[in-house]
Fold this protein.
Amino acid sequence: MKKIIKMIAIAGLATAAASCGKEQEEFKYLVDEFADLKVMRYQVPGWDGLTLQQKEYVYHLAEAAKYGRDIIWMQNCKYNLQVRKAIENILENYKGDRECEDFKDFETYAKRVFFSNGIHHHYAEDKFFPVCSKEYFGELMKAVDAYDIRVLSFIYDYDACPHRKSTDKSKDIVVESSVNFYEGVTKAEVEKFYEEMTDLSDPTPVSYGLNSKLMKAADGTVYEEVYKIGGLYGHALEKICEELEKAAEVAENKVQKQYIDDLINYYKTGDLKLWDEYNIKWVGEHEGSVDFVNGFVEDYNDPLGRKATWEGLVNFKDEEASRRTKLISDNAQWFEDNSPIDPRFKKAEVKGVSAKVINVVTLAGDCYPAAPIGINLPNADWIRREHGSKSVTIANLTSAYSKAAQEAPKGMLGEFAWSDEEIAYEKRYGDLTSDLHTDLHECLGHGSGQLLPTTAPNALGEYSSTLEETRADLFGLYYLADPKLVELGILPDMEAYKAQYQSYIRNGIFTQFTRVELGKKNTQAHMQNRKLISEWCYEKGLADNVIEKKVRDGKTYFVVNDFEALRYLFAELLAEIQRIKSEGDFEAGKALVEKYAVNIDPVLHKEVRDRYYALQLKPYGGFLNPDIVPVKRFGKVVDYELVYNDNYLEQMLQYGQKYSTL
């Protein structure tokens, strides 16, 4: 799933509102804030319009998704579950003073660990530490009869697993990374292992390594442990399959049942050819309303961009909102034909592009609590080429972000926009053009273009994720300003796109770095993508003052002066990024990322953080899931109701009790 990420004490469960009107009136989106994080709730409009069968289908898919929780924790770092269980034990059993400052500091650390699915920041990927002392933490462990000096020492050791994913190219990025994809092997050994398995002449290449851990035996032999029932993470996969089997019994149609069966067989065997068969059937099914993601999908966390983290997401279609994305996907061939890239890299026939707007019901694995707002799947280029892709925009999450921002006393726009005109554009067109950029990125951007026959799918290595997100973002930015969107009735006029152009540059070149600690580099793929585009366009447009750096009252602003020229710069860069991907030009891709995407100006970095934190906002957001509760009468399930939780720690502890399998 190529994703767009949105930048922007234990009690009982919250009860559902008595009526829809009351729920709308009293519903609060923002439920907790700590460190640099905010936790929100999302509503699920349209739930009551689903049939009982559809609700039951969603329920079992949701259970299957949540049973994969421990997998992502283990993948992020092999010691994560030990730390989590120590934290859970204290939160559930400690009888001492919970109001003192030390315990509050411990609680904040616990919340951060839960949010990040481990001990590393979910976005910056550096290890974070408790504010409370090591001695106090140890006393808490002793108080619940769970003192473990090894776990305690690991939590406070700055040199133990300092980075989830290392980006320091001067060192071995496999050895230096804490992700649990490799053990005892070097970058060179990993590359050699998979090069020997790859057949470049195969038009349907298998994504070798996607669902495994690569290890070295005592005799020096390098081998894989495969994620499957009876293998690595087998107990969790058993529970996932049990729920998938129940879901298959109430699927909306025969094709859904078939691809769920394929998915189950894949989990039983670990055979990646079955994973491809599942994806082909899944991408071709469009009749049902309910859909899901369940599997080892994204390779963002792997320093080599090969191995996938586990994630789950369950949703259903928003019929009314999907009219926009249908218009886009129906015209996919026009967009491909008119793309400003070399004709060699264009698809002669765009196949199977489908797009829709969805409402999510359950987030899980690497999608929880921090979640994407757009999705495009599958990731295999040959499946995209031969069978197409599915793209979605997640309406109820984008709505929740917007509503939660309205609950905050101050906002970003007034602080960082240069003029009243900018603010007016943003307020008038901002939500529409932001959603549309997501649509174009996911619906068409990721599925556009093609590799040359001689190019290996993983040719760009550790730079592949950043460059792929750059390519999809540029595709969306270029077409936002195309008259075709006005012709299709998607945009109201040829002024609307300017809101997204201005906000994109402002964010990519400046405001997004509120999320990065001072002195750190920019390491996350989506943030690197935005910086690469914005910095490259700023530099290339300097002579013509396309983007201008302005200072007023000691504050810096970045202002777009020539929107048409900026569009041409987007086109030029898109053509080059597509060439790099299509030809597998590793060195050119590396040069772009290293020059424009990594290093942050320290003076601007300090300024933007100072101004942002004066607003008392939190740069990162994530979500609680509603509970799906079966309603029984006379021992029979007659309905499934949603219960909206408003206690962050409670949901984390509840999930730890119910869904822990490893």
In short: The first strand starts at residue 2 and ends at 5. Residues 420-445 form the longest helix (26 residues). DSSP finds 26 helices and 16 strands in the chain. Residues 340 and 571 are 6 Å apart (CA to CA).
